[in-house]
Amino acid sequence: MKPRSSIQITCAVIFALVLREIQALAGRRRLGAFWALAEPLVHLVMFTVVMGVLRGRPDIAGHPYAMFLLVGMAPYLMYRRIAMMMAEGVGSSRALFAYKQITPMDTFLARILVEVCITSVVYVLIVLGFIWFGFDMTVPHPLEWVGVLLLGLLFTFSLGLILAALVNALPDSRTLIRMAFMPIYLISGIIVPPSHLPPEFLPYLMWNPFLHLAELTHEATLSNYESISGISAGYVARVTLIMLFFGLGLYRVFRKKYIAIVS
């Protein structure tokens, strides 16, 4: 048999892990597969009804509120799930590290690929539903939209590396991390546009990279939408590079401890 290169081995390992995750999702975790579609729908209905009661029929830059909510909510839910899957990935994949070909990084990448695929399918289904009901779901700046999503994925990957090290050192912190994503959700310009928030709070909210990602996503997907002053992809990129450097350093420090779990 012809020996395979390290890249071929890594690709084969990641492909096998992706198949494992999909099989688990379709088998033992069917409720999880259902929730992947139900969660964004529940959020859409709940917040649209709440905003309808509070503000009548709110339109954002000439678009229905449901559209504004969807284009910001779907990426954030994906980012949150990826970060949590990476944070909990080491503990749930302990037995796999008995095989020397499998590294913790392989499990991280496999989980990211699975989550991106699931979110893409769910998003397409919801968008088709919106089109069925007569919504114009045209993306005016598709390349900018894809670029923002890729930047968000890289930022989330960096965040996931840090959270994985934190959960490995302090296992009880995973509950606190899950709880922290809810207030971040509320202050990231996903439910309410930042322009509708009290101006005195904006300087503090601008430190939140998720706010920048949400505003950039809205600007790329909603025609005539103008983001607030100070929104910058460069800021997110700089934060991502710092977190990526720090996260990869933590991964290198904790890598042997991840693998040593089953030693």
- Label the overall shape: globular
> How many structural units, i.e. domains?
1
* Mean pLDDT across every amino acid position: 83
Strand order of the largest sheet: 1-2
Runs in which pLDDT lies below 50 for 5 or more consecutive residues are none
SSE run: HHEEHHHHHHH
* Helix-strand makeup class: mainly alpha
Described by strand count, sense and barrel closure, the largest sheet is:
2 strands, antiparallel
Strand content: under 5%
How many DSSP E strands? 2
Structure commentary:
It is a single chain. The protein has 263 residues and is an all-alpha fold. It has one domain (6-262). The protein is 72% helix and 2% strand. It contains nine helices and two strands; from the N terminus they run H-H-E-E-H-H-H-H-H-H-H. The chain has helices at residues 6-26, 30-55, 65-92, 104-132, 142-169, 173-186, 202-205, 209-221, 233-259, and strands at residues 59-60, 63-64. The protein has a two-stranded antiparallel ribbon with strand order 1-2. A hairpin with a 2-residue loop joins strand 1 (59-60) and strand 2. Helix 1 crosses helix 4 and helix 5 (142-169) runs antiparallel to helix 8. The longest helix is centred in the middle third of the chain and has 29 residues, at 104-132. The radius of gyration is 20 Å and the shape is globular. The two termini are 30 Å apart. The model has no long low-confidence stretch (mean pLDDT 83).
